[in-house]
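Aim 2 progress update. The chain analyzed this quarter is reproduced below.
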Amino acid sequence: MNLWNFFVQNRLDIADLTLEHLWMVGVSTLIAVAIGIPLGILIARKPVLRTPVIAGANIIQTIPSLALFGFLLPAPWIGERAGRLAILALTLYALLPLIRNTYAGIEGVDRAVVEAARGMGLTDWQLLVKVQLPLASSVILAGIRVAVVISVGLATIAAAIGAGGLGELIFRGLAMVNDTVILAGAIPAALMALTADVLLGWLGKRLAPQRG
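Predicted structure tokens:
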């Protein structure tokens, strides 16, 4: 059976697995953004925390994905459901680019602009919300872009613990030694990552400060 025929005959199953994949990536990314961006802001405000926070996120990145899933299995409540475990693991992997880019974006704001804003009487909170975050938004979005692409790829591994997603087709194809089934999972995942990369890249250019 060629690839096109396989897609046509199994379109509903592939669509369901694609939606599961999108769900895992979307939820984990939202949670990572809710944690990572505040952490990036925190270490920009309190430099003494920068090394331990970045080091912790770096350590998580060095743990092989299957090993991390295994470490999390005994966790109460989370380990009971493969979907929860996969979302937690993807969230942890997405933190580093979000923390690092938020910190870099805020630190990269022109000091003259910051001092001018302070001279106008802005409080620290107003300075952050009205000046630093808007000017750093394109850099922060680049971190989100990296996190999403990483999550799309790693979500395929989640099928190894029964969390679903397009990885199910990839693992099924590997077990059957069937390239068609492998590609039926790999191609939609690759297209998903490329689409997210292009769209977030375009949005990042729109948000980038205009020069001249």
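The two ends are 57 Å apart (CA to CA). The chain has a mean pLDDT of 89. These observations will guide the mutagenesis experiments scheduled for the next reporting period.
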